[in-house]
Design brief:
The chain has 275 residues and is of the alpha/beta class. Helix content is 45%, strand content 17%. It has twelve helices and ten strands. The strands form two sheets. It has a six-stranded parallel sheet, sandwiched between helices. Strands 6-5-7-8 form a four-stranded parallel sheet, sandwiched between helices. Bound molecules: D-glutamic acid. The site of D-glutamic acid has 17 residues, from helix 3.
Length: 275
């Protein structure tokens, strides 16, 4: 039993999409969330910059004695997980990519044609195709697409809007048609926020969410390491953002619904000093 915090982080609001799964699946757990909203997006930055930001977040989480760190960010998972694991060998550090690839292996068949949507930084590492090939060697039709405009629009709250639909058409119409895609891996935790648009524009396509798969992997890790919290856990959840904007607050309330009140969440601004 371990009632310390779980540290969850992302470049911005995207990582919030993992939080409802974590809170619903593991109600005794308490979370320190950090969204680096002042420096988002990470996905268009150089790997060295992303690694530096990630180490700053890791230091903050370690100073709060978290029992586990979970990068609810595919860009961090693709570029910086190893440096974070090396910096904190005594703290389990989880990312999204292996967990999501396990789900691809579980639900996809060899004939499936899988489109991996992610940021530029994630795509350039090829971490997703490598991890999926490891998890499911028989799945061979893998195609990647970087969609760099999705994150800035989502951070601005432009989701149920024709501009978002136009942007989706711009990136995905040819990609889906030419590669005869039947499954989309949402390889960025911001993208579940446009899953409604994707379902409406491309009905019948299977969506696999990295946000959900991270939560499932986190539960397995807590169980395997005997780190689960119990019902005596009375800590509050603390949500930090480097720019505690209206959009961050709105997105949290939208994603957690009534849960935001019930869950005793405190919001705080956090300047990591690297700006
Ligand atoms: N939500 C993040 C991801 O999963 C980062 C997006 C970004 O900052 O570009 O990749």
């Amino acid at each position: 039993m371990d009632n310390r915090y779980i540290g969850i982080f992302d470049s911005g609001v995207g990582g919030l999409t993992s939080v409802p799964y974590i809170m619903d699946l593991f109600p005794n757990e308490r979370v320190i969330f950090f969204g680096d909203t002042a420096r988002t997006p990470y996905g268009s930055k150089a790997p060295e910059t992303i690694r530096q930001f990630t180490l700053e977040i890791g230091a903050f989480m370690a100073a709060h004695d978290v029992k586990l760190m979970a990068a609810a960010c595919n860009t961090i998972s693709a570029t910086s997980l190893e440096v974070l694991q090396a910096a904190y060998p005594d703290i389990p550090v989880l990312g999204t990519i292996d967990a999501t690839s396990q789900m691809v292996a579980a639900v996809c068949s060899p004939s499936d044609r899988i489109g991996i949507l992610a940021t530029k930084a994630t795509v350039s590492t090829e971490m997703y195709p490598k991890a999926i090939r490891r998890a499911a060697p028989e799945v061979t039709h893998l195609y990647q697409k970087a969609c760099p405009m999705f994150v800035p629009l989502i951070e601005e709250g432009i989701v149920d809007h024709p501009i978002m639909d136009m942007t989706i058409h711009y990136y995905l119409d040819d990609f889906i048609r030419d590669n005869r895609i039947d499954t989309l891996v949402l390889g960025c935790t911001h993208y579940p926020l446009i899953s409604g648009n994707l379902r409406r524009l491309y009905p019948g396509i299977r969506l696999i969410s990295s946000s959900k798969e991270l939560a499932v992997a986190l539960g397995n890790e807590l169980r395997d390491r005997d780190l689960q919290a119990d019902e005596t856990n009375e800590r509050e959840n603390i949500f930090y953002a480097s720019d505690l904007s209206d959009s961050f607050l709105r997105m949290t309330r939208q994603l957690l619904g009534d849960g935001a009140k019930k869950r005793n969440i405190r919001f705080k601004n956090l300047d990591l000093g690297g700006r």
